[in-house]
Write a structure and sequence with these properties.
Layout (H helix, E strand, L loop, with lengths): L2 H10 L5 E2 L2 H9 L7 H14 L7 E2 L3 H8 L3 H13 L3 E4 L3 E4 L19 E2 L11 H11 L15 H13 L9 E4 L2 H12 L5 E6 L3 H9 L3 E8 L2 E2 L1 H11 L3 E4 L13 H14 L2 E5 L25 E6 L11 E4 L2 H11 L8 H11 L2 H26 L4 E2 L7 E5 L5 H10 L2 E2 L1 E2 L12 E5 L4 H20 L11
Parallel strand pairs: 1-2, 5-16, 7-8, 7-10, 10-11, 11-12
Antiparallel strand pairs: 3-4, 6-13, 8-9, 12-13, 14-15, 15-18, 17-18
Helix pairs in contact: 2-3, 2-4, 3-5, 4-5, 6-13, 7-13, 8-9, 8-12, 10-11, 14-16, 15-16
The structure holds pyridoxal-5'-phosphate.
The site of pyridoxal-5'-phosphate has 13 residues, from helix 8.
């Protein structure tokens, strides 16, 4: 995002609407390596937090004396750190208004509106090919159509047998659910967009993770939401920050992906889920929980119960989809919520469409009967691909630091330098399309990251990494210089 627009945002909001107190910032800084001079270590740590989106832009930093007290250093040290951050355009200050974070220009180019050419390798789209058995299920669905063609074919809440199958799957996962709680949509994105459309008014605060799924951000922005972010890394959520966010903003809605979070792969544990629902209840927040890849565990082990299992008052709307488990070409998703909310979602849908395709829903219903086999097949396939991609990265790009996700479809790779935008542009010239970190940030942060989907077979992934390595060498030889020097 251009510095000017961030600055305008800061000016509109009077210079930093989110605050971070000295104790919390000191704790986040404390995770960074300590070096001398200490003011520079503090400054670099804060700039890293801003670039990673863990301290969002437009956050008001604590007064110098408060941070100094929390860190146990002299006020002069913090004054020097803030001065460095100002010189390097991570911080703006106004007499009497304090100091708030901003983002320096990143050199990120605009994403192309066109998809990759056919011979290119697309690591940006996290969508696997259809599971075995899809064709057979579709043929059976076509045969069954005879029983439906005499009727109107409009099922605005979803095909009854599919609502049953989805509810039964929740029961199997430990969450009592009736078919009346299921609203079938044309994919998860429609569920997210409808929930946001229904619940968010212009100006409402909406809490999202940083990084997160970009089309959910689109939906929230379109509704006129004021986006607030909470950081998540492959190690998980900073729960203190999350609790603080609910208490400070009391957001109208929070959108989270607790299962193999897109793009970090983080998995929220049971205790954290309990805390999340508790804080949402206290703050009066609707929780939209995106479970798009919840069924895509790669490594064995018990999975936590769905977030909605901790909800006693219908505060959680759980969004699901068959796109990643079965096939994206089956446009079938759903929202699990209370029956009254199902009715409201159905009314809201009518502005956009009236019902989903019967043939797709019949096909999905058949495949649900076979869900355990399909899960095992996906898990094998994704483990093979993930490990192949990790191996290739280790060999060809050993200074990158990819996570090792326990599920989902993507790696989140940390780069040694904040060059994701320039590298992605160079990669396209080498015929490979990664997704640059800033795509997943609410405010253009995350230049140190790339998201790489491992939905393709090992030989294709190895070829893709060769191309990425060539693009990386080229990027380092001709870096796009951000305005102001970055030390991260
Ligand atoms: C987290 C998340 N939510 C929603 C979607 C959209 O899913 P669908 O194709 O079911 O609309 C995706 C697809 O990439 C996703 O990763």
């Amino acid at each position: 995002m251009a510095r000017q627009s961030v600055q305008r945002a800061a000016e509109r909001s009077g210079g930093g609407t989110r605050r971070i107190n000295g104790r919390l910032l000191a704790r986040l800084i404390g995770e960074a390596p300590v070096e001398r001079p200490y003011y520079l270590a503090i400054a670099k740590a804060v700039s890293g937090l801003v670039l990673d989106g863990r301290v969002p832009s437009n956050t008001r930093l604590p007064a110098e004396r408060d941070l100094a007290a929390a860190l146990g250093v002299s006020r002069n040290t913090v004054t020097a750190a803030y001065a460095w951050l100002r010189d390097n355009r991570f911080l703006e200050s106004r007499q009497g208004a304090g100091s708030w974070t901003v983002l320096p220009d990143s050199g990120t180019s605009e994403p192309s509106p066109f998809g990759p050419a056919a011979e290119h390798i697309d690591l940006g789209l996290a969508a696997p090919a259809a599971v075995d058995g899809l064709r057979a299920a579709a043929l059976r669905a076509a045969e069954q159509l005879a029983a439906h063609v005499g009727g109107l074919g409009y099922y605005p809440y979803g095909l009854p047998e599919l609502r049953h199958a989805i509810a039964r799957r929740y029961v199997e996962r430990g969450l009592p659910t009736t078919p009346e709680q299921i609203f079938v949509t044309n994919g998860a994105q429609q569920g997210v967009a409808l929930a946001v459309d229904l619940l968010v008014q212009p100006g409402d605060e909406v809490l999202v993770e940083s990084p997160t799924y970009p089309h959910a951000l689109d939906a929230a922005r379109h509704a006129g939401a004021r986006l607030r972010t909470v950081g998540v890394t492959p190690q998980g959520w900073d729960m203190e920050y999350l609790v603080d966010a609910f208490r400070q903003w009391r957001p109208r809605l929070a959108y989270l992906i607790p299962d193999f979070q897109n793009p970090t792969g983080a998995l929220m544990d049971d205790d954290e889920r309990r805390v999340l629902v508790r804080e949402a209840r206290r703050a009066g927040t609707h929780l939209v929980i995106d479970e798009s890849v919840a069924e895509l565990a790669i490594d064995s082990g018990d999975l936590p119960a769905p977030v909605a299992a901790h909800d006693t008052e219908g505060r959680v709307l759980t969004v699901g989809s068959v796109a990643k488990l079965l096939w994206g070409g089956l446009r079938v998703g759903w929202v699990r919520t209370t029956p009254p909310m199902v009715a409201r979602l159905m009314a809201a849908r009518q502005r956009f469409d009236l019902a989903g395709a019967v043939l797709d829903q019949l096909t999905a219903t058949h495949l649900f009967a076979d869900v355990m086999r399909i899960r095992a097949e996906r898990s094998r396939q994704l483990r093979r691909n993930r490990d192949a991609l990790l191996r290739a990265l280790r060999e060809r790009l050993p200074d990158w630091r990819p996570n090792v996700p326990g599920g989902g479809l993507v790696l989140w790779a940390a780069l040694p330098q904040p060059v994701a935008g320039a590298l992605s542009a160079a990669a396209v010239r080498h015929g490979v399309h990664p997704a640059a970190g800033p795509v997943f940030g609410a405010d253009g942060t995350l230049e140190r990251y790339l998201r790489l989907a491992y939905t393709q077979p090992p030989d294709v992934l190895a070829d893709a990494v060769e191309r990425l390595a060539a693009a990386y060498t080229q990027t380092l030889a001709h870096p796009v210089q951000p305005r102001g020097q970055l030390y991260v």
